[in-house]
Design brief:
There is one protein chain. This protein is of the alpha/beta class and about 550 residues long. It contains 18 helices and 16 strands. Strands 1-16-15-4-5-8 form a 6-stranded mixed sheet. Strands 9, 10, 11, 12, 13 and 14 form a 6-stranded antiparallel sheet that branches. A two-stranded antiparallel sheet has the order 2-3. Strand 2 and strand 3 form a beta hairpin.
Length: about 550
């Protein structure tokens, strides 16, 4: 049974438009078979990582993942004290520690629910290796009839550095964020979750001082209050594990071959999806022999700007550089054994140098070594079509299947009953006034008023021309006559035009208002707790 969403399966994954709807792919009825197949694949994988087998590394990585996730989560919220670190099945999901929309947050609720059904440990990876791109969220205000959306900042914008390293810069701005948001949205949403959530964020901010961690810790604590039993762990912690270092050293040692396969697969994806941008889905890895770019990030504690990693392979060592000031060497024995190189990576961490996985490699490692099921959103699932083929071509392994989840929850605000169809109907009537004005005045006995004569003669003349078959000899004269009559009839439909133009403006305004209030991307903390909880806990059962 091949249920994974591979690159050769270029299905179009779209977020649901309907309020309260979900995308679940594959259907829940097929999930047990998908997990069973993934487990079968995992126990039969044969691959050597410079002296350690994938099966061996995976077993160590999984045990460390669950143990570390339990210890990390227990630092700020209650976890199941009766559980052990000896996990059976592991279900994983992941997202940046930011103020996401409800459809993304719902993935955590699905992770918890599905793990319970299948007796698995649920772990959410905080992708804290990504940079902080925005420090504002869009918040609607005003009224239902005249809403306006403005950005509200929770911190000052600074240079883009990873969440792992990003402190809270403006404490006063951060502290007042919840109150400003609640005040702005109050005319539309009386009791947004931010009133309960942001004080929790501020409590964690005192403990961590980290922007992403304070928001993610509070969100995870809130999930615990609602009964979720998921664990969390930052991706940076995963990258510091010994199994991941073996994996990273292998990619560095094989940088030339990996970059070739990587670029081939990315190019095929662009062609299949007709993408012209060289930045999507991800940029190519640079190739400038003897230097080859690796799919990793590198930075230092003193200067936490992400840098690309370049590799030069020598006979008994690997040279790493950012093509700038950073330059290191990893010893690699002639027989390929990576023990000393793995230890050197650990030593670099103690020296303040950090090596982190980039997006595709993060999910590749998570799917191949850490989990029995990975839950993706739509964007990640599209990009993991590339990951699937990387697994097949570079590792020569069948990729494990994944699940794609997304949902839509709109703010509970009444909206005017207007649609694009209404706007199109008005536009069509305005067009008819230009080309078929007689439809609106035919049969009227318009008395001569303010210089207007009865239009009956003009209408009769137009009908004669319309009924006259066009020929090469009369075609131009016929067209000009019909156009002249239409123009002369315009004076008789001025009231209808004024009415339709006013209705068109009113409809456009209503559509703009409805669009402003119907964005699915509004942050989860703008929604009332009751609405979100009902949505989150019942959606999976509705689709079961």
């Amino acid at each position: 049974m091949n249920t994974h969403t591979g690159q050769r399966d270029n299905r179009r994954l779209r977020a649901p438009c309907e309020d309260g709807a979900a995308l679940i792919e594959p259907p829940l009825s097929e999930l047990a078979a998908l997990v069973e197949e993934n487990v079968r694949l995992s126990v039969n994988r044969s691959y050597d990582f410079q002296g350690r087998s994938l099966v061996e590394l995976s077993a160590q990585a999984r045990a460390e993942l669950v143990g570390q996730a339990r210890r990390f989560s227990a630092a700020y919220r209650d976890v199941d004290s009766a559980a052990t670190d000896d996990a059976g099945l592991i279900f994983l999901a992941g997202h940046q520690p930011q103020l996401c929309h409800p459809g993304v947050w719902w993935k955590n609720f699905a992770l918890d629910d599905l793990a319970r059904r299948h007796g698995a440990v649920a772990v959410n990876l905080r992708i804290d290796c990504d940079t902080v791109k925005d420090t504002v969220i869009a918040v609607p205000g005003g009224s239902v009839g005249k809403p306006h959306v403005e950005p509200v900042a929770f911190d000052r914008a600074e240079s883009k550095i990873p969440y792992e390293e990003r402190p809270i810069v403006d404490r006063a701005l951060f502290a007042g964020f919840g109150g400003r948001v609640a005040e702005r949205i109050a005319p539309l949403v009386a009791d947004p979750l931010v009133r309960q959530y942001w004080p929790m964020v501020l409590g964690h901010a005192e403990r961590t001082g980290n922007l992403g961690a304070s928001m993610a810790d509070a969100r995870h604590e809130l999930e615990g209050c609602w009964g979720l039993q998921t664990l969390e762990i930052p991706q940076s912690w995963v990258c510091e594990s010994e199994p991941f270092r073996w994996f990273a050293v292998h990619l560095l040692a094989q940088a030339e071959r990996f970059s070739r396969v990587y670029n081939e697969v990315v190019g095929e994806y662009r062609r299949a999806h007709r993408i012209r941008s060289v930045a999507h889905p991800v940029p190519d890895l640079a190739v400038a022999p003897p230097w080859f770019e690796a799919p990793l990030w590198m930075w230092t504690t003193d200067d936490p700007r992400r840098r690309r990693v370049f590799v030069c392979r020598h006979r008994d060592r690997i040279e790493l550089a950012d093509r700038g000031a950073l330059r290191f060497e990893l010893p690699l024995a002639a027989d390929g054994d990576a023990r000393r190189a793995v230890q050197r990576l650990a030593d670099l961490r103690r020296d303040g140098v950090k090596i982190r996985s980039r997006a595709l490699i993060t999910t590749l490692w998570a799917r191949l070594a850490l989990s029995d099921l990975f839950l993706h959103g739509i964007g990640g699932a599209k990009y993991d079509q590339v990951t699937d083929v990387l697994i097949e071509r570079f590792f020569r392994l069948q990729p494990p299947g994944l699940m794609v989840l997304s949902a839509t929850l709109l703010l509970p605000i009444p909206r005017q009953p207007v649609s694009e169809d209404d706007a199109r109907a008005i536009q069509q009537q305005l067009r008819d006034l230009v080309y078929h004005p007689e439809r609106y005045i035919d049969g009227q006995d318009v008395a001569p008023t303010r210089g207007l004569t009865n239009p009956g003669g003009l209408i009769a003349e137009k009908r004669r021309w319309v009924d006259t078959p066009p020929t090469p000899q009369n075609a131009r004269r016929r067209c000009r006559a019909i156009r002249r009559i239409n123009e002369q009839l315009q004076r008789y439909v001025k009231p209808q035009r004024r009415r339709l133009l006013a209705l068109q403006a009113e409809t456009a305004h209503a559509l703009h208002a409805a669009s402003a209030l119907s964005r699915r991307e509004y942050a989860f903390c703008l929604h009332p707790e009751k609405n979100f909880r009902q949505f989150a806990f019942h959606l999976l059962h509705k689709n079961a």
